[in-house]
Write a structure and sequence with these properties.
Length: about 220
């Protein structure tokens, strides 16, 4: 394991892009170590290794951007539990890692929907962000939300949207967009839930409503 981690770190050093790394730091993406390696290159490196739970866990524990992303690519689905998903999510502190975790691993799990619905009800910002990002990923794949989850999804999305500009708000907006894209009926449900936005007197809320309205008109 030690030699494998050393080999991986060496590959990231050889692919390091200092300009990208500095740009990320300036934009607030702070890691203990960030090599600035591109996502396609990280995926290329991932293909050199067999998926392994112990290796993925070791990579995730490193406060290194590239190793965390690689962990999401090398974690086997069949051994990733709800409890482990909770532990990994609790350590997420950057938007990019939240997105990569949802895209590369969480959306493929058989309990992804239950996880997402649980997380959108949490108080911690990144749990909420990942909950909505995960729902957005599922809707992108054509996943149909269970009927019993509908009231909770719409209520939490509207609550988060009403809070103001935030990561959670942007993630909820994305989930609403992909949910509404699935059918004209679902688009109507979203717009009806936000029907007071154009009348609220808030330019920001009206902009959200018009953004969703345009999105649904374009994709229907």
């Amino acid at each position: 394991m030690h030699n494998t981690l050393k080999d991986i770190r060496t590959q990231f050093r050889l692919s390091m892009n200092g300009i990208v790394s500095q740009s990320m730091r300036e934009k607030g993406a702070v890691y203990k170590l960030n090599f600035g390696v591109s996502l396609p290159k990280i995926r290329e490196i991932a293909q050199r290794y067999t998926k392994d739970a112990a290796l993925a866990e070791a990579l995730w524990q490193e406060d290194v951007r590239e190793m965390k992303i690689l962990a999401t690519l090398l974690q086997p689905l069949d051994s990733f539990t709800v409890e482990q998903a909770e532990l990994w999510a609790a350590g997420v502190k950057q938007q990019e890692i939240a997105e990569q975790l949802c895209m590369n691993l969480l959306q493929e799990l058989p309990f992804a929907e239950e996880l997402a619905m649980k997380w959108i009800c949490r108080e911690e910002e990144f749990f909420v962000v990942m909950g909505f990002l995960l729902l957005a990923r599922l809707y992108m794949k054509g996943f149909c939300l269970r009927q019993e989850y509908m009231p909770l999804f719409m209520r939490r999305a509207k609550e988060v949207m009403d809070v103001g500009l935030s990561r959670s708000q942007r993630a909820s907006l994305l989930a609403l967009k992909y949910y509404g894209r699935q059918s004209s009926e679902q688009a109507d449900i979203v717009l009806l839930a936000l029907a007071d936005y154009p009348l609220s007197g808030s330019p920001e809320r009206e902009e959200f409503y018009e953004d969703l309205k345009f999105e649904f008109q374009y994709y229907q």
